[in-house]
């Protein structure tokens, strides 16, 4: 009898806990708070996915900060008419990339998933295990991911502005060393066991949902060298994947290291991100049946106002990055266009 009572108490506790977690999902709803400007941390792309209209996006880009700063969806829309979204974020882990893609596939059916490769070389075993457990819980109970929204009562809306996941950065800090940093070598920085596993799992997830996984490396002298390229090419070959390395295609992309990087060769600014995004989609155009949707009112009515806002903000943001901006620019972003209007 005592044993039964103990089981009932445990079951009651767990049931109560689940109810609380579900209520947190209602209270801290991304759909409610993302359009108001209060979700601006690294989880903002998760929130953005929650609010995106179903079946809107043909190209999804994911990865760590190299990915987040290196791909501009609005340039792709303006120049090619393809719909794309950037869900890359700082310090993303391989399990986190897998789970955010799994979430994305619930509402979107992209033709291509672009996976920037730097994340395969930056996570220890303990961090991966912790990330996997945490992300599964966050996926089940969304309120846990956005639980710190209660702080909005004591803070103002943030002034960072997402354009289909991309944050405009017009700050220029040139890379002044030699652009010839990808010197040929037979050395290979092999992927470790976990990186090989997650590459295969992400590929399997994409195939299951009818998307082609394409690996790509953003041009970055600080993060890439030839032995690393060789390791990634080896992994791509094992999985039958296309691998596009911007570091080996600087001339084709049209990169200008005196102008297209925001931090001396670590990340792209918006000028580099626009060039990179166009080169990536053009590299796939001959075999992927992308659709130019600029003449389709169902898409143009949604995307063109965002493009207009993107262009306006680029003019206002000249020379700035959204983490370090003047009061005038912050006021423009917050009040020049309401957070409910296109562009956010």
Give a summary of the structure in a few sentences.
With 344 residues, the chain is α/β, with parallel strands linked by helices. The protein has helices at 2-27, 30-33, 44-51, 65-70, 73-80, 94-104, 125-140, 142-145, 193-208, 226-239, 250-253, 270-284, 297-316, 327-336, and strands at 59-62, 84-86, 112-116, 162-163, 166-167, 212-217, 242-245.
Please trace the helix and strand order, writing H or E for each element: HHHEHHEHEHHEEHEHEHHHH
- The CATH homologous superfamily is termed SGNH hydrolase
The dominant shape is: globular
Order of strands, widest sheet: 2-1-3-6-7
What's the β-strand tally?
A: 7
Mean pLDDT: 86
Number of H/I helices: 14
How many structurally independent domains? 1
Which segments are poorly predicted (pLDDT under 50) over 5 or more consecutive residues?
none
Based on the structure given, which CATH architecture is correct? 3-Layer(aba) Sandwich
Q: Main beta sheet: strand number and arrangement? A: 5 strands, parallel
> What share of residues are in beta strands?
5-15%
Binned, the helix content reads 40-55%
Ends distance? 58 Å
Q: Please write the CATH class name.
A: Alpha Beta
**Radius of gyration from the alpha-carbon trace, in angstroms:** 21 Å
Class computed from helices, strands and strand pairing:
alpha/beta
- What is the fold-level CATH name, i.e. the topology? Rossmann fold
């Amino acid at each position: 009898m005592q044993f039964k009572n103990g089981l009932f108490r445990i079951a009651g506790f767990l049931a109560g806990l689940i109810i609380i977690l579900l209520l947190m999902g209602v209270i801290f709803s991304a759909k409610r708070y993302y359009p108001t400007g209060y979700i601006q941390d690294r989880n903002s792309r998760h929130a953005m996915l929650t609010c995106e209209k179903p079946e809107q996006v043909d190209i999804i880009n994911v990865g760590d900060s190299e990915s987040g700063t290196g791909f501009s969806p609005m340039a792709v829309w303006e120049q090619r008419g393809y719909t794309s979204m950037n869900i890359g974020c700082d310090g993303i882990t391989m399990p986190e990339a897998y789970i955010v893609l799994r979430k994305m596939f619930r509402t979107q059916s992209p033709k291509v998933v672009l996976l920037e490769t730097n994340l395969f070389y930056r996570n220890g075993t303990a961090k991966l295990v912790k990330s996997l457990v945490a992300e599964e819980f966050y996926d089940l109970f969304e309120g846990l991911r956005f639980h710190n929204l209660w702080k909005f009562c004591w803070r103002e809306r943030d002034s960072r502005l997402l354009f289909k996941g991309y944050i405009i950065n017009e700050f220029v800090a040139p890379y002044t060393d030699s652009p010839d940093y990808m010197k040929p070598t037979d050395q290979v920085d092999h992927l470790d066991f976990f990186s090989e596993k997650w590459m295969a799992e992400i590929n399997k997830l994409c195939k299951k949902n009818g998307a082609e996984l394409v690996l790509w490396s953003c041009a970055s002298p600080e993060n890439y060298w030839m032995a690393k390229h060789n390791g990634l090419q080896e992994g791509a070959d094992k999985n039958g994947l296309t691998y596009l390395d911007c570091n080996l295609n600087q001339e084709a992309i049209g990169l200008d290291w005196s102008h297209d990087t925001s931090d001396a060769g670590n990340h792209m600014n918006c000028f580099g991100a626009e060039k990179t995004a166009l080169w990536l989609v053009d590299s796939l155009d001959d075999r992927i049946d992308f659709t130019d949707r600029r003449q389709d009112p169902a898409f143009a009515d949604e995307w063109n106002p965002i493009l207009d806002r993107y262009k306006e903000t680029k003019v206002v943001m000249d020379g700035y990055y959204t983490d370090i901006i003047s009061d005038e620019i912050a006021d423009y972003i917050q009040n020049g266009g309401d957070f409910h209007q296109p562009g956010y």
